[in-house]
Amino acid sequence: MATYKYHVLICGGTGCRASQSNKIIDNFKRLLKENGLEKEVQVVETGCFGFCEKGPIVKILPDNTFYIEVKPEDVEEIINEHVIKGRKVQRLLYVDPKTSEHKADSKHMGFYKKQLRIALRNAGFINPENIDEYIARDGYKALATVLEQNDPQATIDIIKKSGLRGRGGGGFPTGLKWEIASKNAADQKYMICNADEGDPGAFMDRSILEGDPHSVIEAMAIGGFCIGATKGLIYIRAEYPLAIERLKVAIGQAREYGLLGKNIFESGFDFDIDIRYGAGAFVCGEETALIHSMEGFRGEPTFKPPFPAQEGYLKKPSNVNNVETFANIPVIINKGWEWFSSIGTEKSKGTKVFALAGQINNVGLIEVPMGITLREVIYEIGGGIKNGKKFKAVQTGGPSGGCLTEKFLDTPIDYDNLLAAGSMMGSGGMIIMDETSCMVSVAKFYLEFTVEESCGKCTPCRIGNKRLYETLEKITNGNGTLEDLDLLRNLSTVIKDTALCGLGQTSPNPVLSTIDNFYDEYLAHVVDKKCPAGQCKALKRYVIDPDNCIGCTACARACPVGAIKGEKKLPHEITQSLCIKCGTCYEKCKFNAIKIQ
Amino acid sequence: MSSIKIKVKKEIIEKIEEICKSFDNQSGELINVLHKTQEYLGYLPAEAQEIIARALNISAARVYGVVSFYSFFSMKPKGKCPVSVCMGTACYVRGADKIVDEFKKVLNIAVGETDNDGVFSLASLRCVGACGLAPVVLVGDKVHGRLAADDVKHIVKEYREQFAKLAEA
Amino acid sequence: METIKLTIDNKSVEVVKGTTILSAAHKLGISIPTLCHLKMHDLNIHNKPGSCRICIVEIEGRRNLAPACVTECAEGMIVQTSSVRVINARRTVLELILSDHPADCLTCAKSGNCELQNLAVRLGIRELHYNGEKSNYQLEVSASIVRDMNKCIMCRRCETMCNEFQTVGALYAIERGFPAVVSTAFNQTLKESPCTFCGQCVAVCPVGALTEVDFTPKVIRALADKKKTVVVQVAPAVRVALGEEFGMEPGTIVTGKLTTALKNLGFDYVFDTDWSADLTIMEEGTELIGRITKYLNGDKDVKLPLLTSCCPAWVNFFEYNFPELKEIPSTAKSPQQMFGAIAKSYFADKINVKREDMIVVSVMPCLAKKYECARDEFKVNDNPDVDYSITTRELAHLIKLVNIDFNSLEETPFDSPLGESTGAAVIFGTTGGVIEAACRTAYELITKKKLERIDFTELRGIKGIRSATIDFDGLKLNIGIAHGLSNARTLLEQIKNGVCEFHAIEVMACPGGCINGGGQPLHHGNTDIVEARWDAIYEADRNMPIRKSHENPSIQKIYKEFLGAPCGHKSHELLHTHYFDKKLVVEVDLD
Fold first, then answer.
1. Domain region containing B109
2. pLDDT at B2
3. A375 lies in a domain?
4. Do A20 and A93 sit in the same domain of this protein?
5. Number of domains comprising chain B
6. Is A531 a domain residue?
7. Does the beta-carbon distance from C169 to B60 stay under 8 Å?
8. C112 found inside a domain
């Protein structure tokens, strides 16, 4: 990169692309050329910077200037001011909401200060479609080291000692998994990458594949060498076209460089990677289901044992890891297990990527050391709750996780603490909810997801989750009874106890955690027939405050069912038996006279 | 059981058989074959599945069992402007359900349906990964972010006009 | 062999490594309830999805409950099969199944014989705490099978039979989540599907989702119709299984009581399909000898091996899957159809009854027989040779319906002339029987010598594919036997690829042959029942005074009086058939 005066890094992740980041790239290229600057300034389309809330992001090196919410028409100004005159464009800098200071450098932004990027180390720095940039940042060095050492067990030991655990949800020690697979002798073994990210609201795997595909390819080759597999398979969601494209480019480049294929680094080790496509089934994140899907069957999980390490893809020993897990591997080899295990808590080492979303100021993808508290994540990185509202709950672990309340805000985040709190790490979705979220509805939302995504194989998941959903629906419709709450609890416990796979066994978590932490809210729905958050339509009651109503008739004219009566210039009234709770009157009233009870 | 006949256009039969052949007619490649066939036809009608079953030497029931298992596969043709509302959690907590309701109202179709002119079809999907723009709607490949219910009719109008222009041309 | 010690319900047990908790518990006399599980080891039938979760048990130190049917024992394991936690979970799981099951036990075809109903009784379900939407699928009534998928509990037994055991591929799990169910491609009818109507799906269905089409009302009406002469024929395998429906030991031979019951039911003539089985041997045996002779004379075009054609599911199977081989099977009709053709011609003339005034009912261990007798080629002016085919189970219902105390019935013989038979005919009821019967006759016809050793034990057994070389006094014939359509498929592929060295092959669709047909009393996964029937068939053979088909005097008589020679002109007209290409056709649409 040395010959250029400036490097302009523009986020080419899906989120920023949706906000025309490719047009920004085009404009940079065109205008730089028009100004004769194309030799001085390099334009790089990178992977995700993580700060999706403020996208599209444009970063300028070497001075690390971080421009947010850039529009294609802003490019001209950036070139004229920043590139030509060396002056930062103040209006495009991030403004700290607390101090109102303009932050020119991402290192000083709250969003980045507490982050530690290992898995995401290259996302937002390199052009994912250029293998040289990956190599320039120590890429494929780990693979070279491992092959040179030629001692699979030694490498497995490094991963074991590093304390790396599976980032896909379960948290199984990665080194141990490799060791088991390595010990099962077979003529053919498979190293499989699970990139079927299905957790609604999590997109770290995609960001890694879009921003740094080589890190996964390198790690798969290392893993393949360790367990004795010469074939790698990446099972990726068909809904991720950009990630698929970048993976294909990266695999092609790696082959060209001899980093995939026969006799890698003259070591005698052969390894190549094929891509397989998912087809929209959340359950295929479960490893046995994933394998059946790759074999051309319905993605139904099967009882373990046999584990994939014994009998996996095409009945051969196979090892399945998720994208983020793989992305950690090369760094561990390069920097040593001691370094990695110094980060995090006693039983959870390293970092975890979270997709921060919901009612929070800084939505985006973050990577934090294990052991950080929820409070730090939400208030320092996330910038607090949107619109100054009150924090109510944080949901982690997606449909398998639970909702945690304020009392857990200072709990250090790791696998075991989250599990103990009734949630789980999951793949890293982190949804922040404020006081306007109804927790019964949230539980219902997740159950709706599970019901739709259940494979239908085992009874508890196929019928049990449906019944859970129906009971929650009954409650949000105002027809719930106290007995329903006991039934919910019992059924949830039984489903956890008896379901066949991880999806089923964790599916009641959103119900159990909300009943445990928000029992009063359930009681309000069931006993008082009220939704404290005002979300449950059936439980809403619109009334007119006669003190505020001036009788303008706007509401009566707007009401689609004629439920509002009243004389002009006199307070109106809503006939409750007719009201369909559509909320039109509430929106139309300019005098704050319509109240929701 | 009795002899059943299905009728399919020659080029379609040939193309599907070619797709199967490109995967060596391996039954393990069924999902890849289905992806390619859907890419080609836009959907997976029963006849296409029969042809695939025959080429891969597996039962049509298995092909259908697989097609009906995965939400990405569809046996109904999509509209020319397929609308997909993201129902990922991030979008949900920022009001995606209201966006879906509005599309249902404006297009007068349910989720999973195509309107009478075959222009719009409505679907919901899980997390397109543009959570920063929540709530998000995809029309074709184009992402529309930070939507409010009021935006829906504008989007529909925009595409309807675009489509009308295309139809004229 | 490595063994493992563990404790189940506070009792210790030592088992071989690899044993499931279910089997280990069984050893201790603890019977853990199951539902989806089906294991018939000797027949190579194994359905173990581990999905119904009824058999869950508590294992100390494990977070979740474990399914006993698929969890292998481990050293030092401590298992509780009926702790409070287990009982609550088991009952809740069962309640969930029942919450998506029609509560129409009183009128269900499976009532009293339903594994789900029995389980509900056993676990004392009195109330369903969880209610909600119920599945709603289209009911299908085909020629043989009724599919009421609202009753499907997703045990997947039928899917396993249809795909793994039979390789038919008519049924498969479709959809996912709550709507998931076992069905056909695109929910087509069974008739549109590759279904062979073998009925093995019905034989293993634990509930009332798959049952036979009930023809008993039609039979009752026919019996009551004074204008009709009603003739009944009974297949060999029925006599060794019917007793089970009346509480007798499996394997009890009830031929005499069966005939009495049929007479009491009001059938005008009670005949035996064994009679037409002997006739089949004459025709098929002659056909075999003819083909072999041609072959030995150097005719290269002769179609060998000869494939038996008695099993209608097997016929359906090759018509759909291997139509290019449709010239190979014997053209001889099945015994059921031979009987019908003779009854409505030779016998009808004899008793001076018009064809349309005669009703032929068959009692079969089979569901495909219902489909077979409805085939167009077995009709004359739209009047079928066999009017109604009912199963062993349906006959038991009929007997119960008319207040017959089956167990105390006197024994009576079949009526004459279509009631006389031989030991060769009765073994048609089991795998290997048809070909053994054919060998007994072919030997004497080919060698013109008396067969000293009647029992061809080398052709017997339970293995899916068997073979033996039989020495016909110097002429060595390679005989193959397959039961289960997956095994038949293996042999057909060999024939197709020109690597088959057999001269004749017997195929039966059902595992074990007709004794385990889709119309037999339900075995509920108990292989011992099937084996007892198997023994009984050979016992019935031994008990017969004549054991070779060509020695049946009644058969000899009909050739002399009516048919002329086997495979002669009259035989071809009445006793032989032809096959159709039923493979799916993809036609080019020119529009």
1. 81-168
2. 52
3. yes
4. yes
5. 2
6. no
7. yes
8. no
ipTM: 0.94
- B98 lies in the same domain as B144: yes
One domain, residues B61 and B88 = no
Note which residues in 267-296 of chain A have CB less than 8 A from chain B.
276-282, 293-296
Higher pLDDT among residues A559 and C205, named by residue: C205
Which residues of chain C are under the pLDDT cut of 50? none
- Could you tell me if B48 and B99 lie in one domain? no
User: Which letter does DSSP use for residue A173 in this model?
Assistant: B
How many CB atoms are located within 10 Å of the residue C58 CB? 19
For residue range A17-71, list pLDDT tens digits in order: 888 899 999 999 999 999 999 899 999 999 888 898 888 999 998 888 999 999 9
Compute the distance between CA of residue B140 and CA of residue B80 in angstroms, rounded to an integer. Answer: 8
A177 assigned to some structural domain? yes
Q: Is the pTM of this model over 0.90?
A: yes
| Token reading at A29 | 């290229």
Model pLDDT, residue C79 = 98
Q: Give me A9's structure tokens.
A: 């890094």
As a whole number, the mean pLDDT across chain A is 93
Q: Which of B60, B62, B68 is facing C175, going by the closest CB pair?
A: B68
What are the phi and psi torsion angles at C208 (to 5°)? -95, 25
Residue A1 pLDDT exceeds 60: no
Amino acid in position C274: D
* Residues of C with catalytic function: 284, 287, 310, 330, 369, 372, 377, 514
CATH number where B26 lies: 1.10.10
- Distance from the Cα of C55 to chain A's closest Cα (Å) equals 10
- Residues C434 and C447: their CA atoms lie apart, in Å, by 20
Q: Which of A452, A453, A464 sits opposite C96 (nearest CB)?
A: A464
The count of domains in chain C is: 3
Nearest to A326 by CA among A166, A511, A106: A166
Residue linked to tokens 């009157």: A585
Answer yes or no: do B93 and B142 share one domain. Answer: yes
Q: Give rounded-to-5 percent helix, strand, coil for chain C.
A: 40, 15, 40
Which of A340, A359, A384 is the C-terminal boundary of a domain?
A340
Q: What is the DSSP letter of C305?
A: S
Please tell me the predicted confidence (pLDDT) of residue A107: 83
Give contacts of C168 with chain B, Cβ < 8 Å.
59
The reply to whether A330 and A210 lie within a common domain is yes
Range of the structural domain that residue A43 is part of: 6-113
Compute the distance between CA of residue A308 and CA of residue A323 in angstroms, rounded to an integer: 17
Of B18, B1, B78, B10, the C-alpha closest to B52 is B18
Local structure of residue C163 (DSSP, 8 states):
I
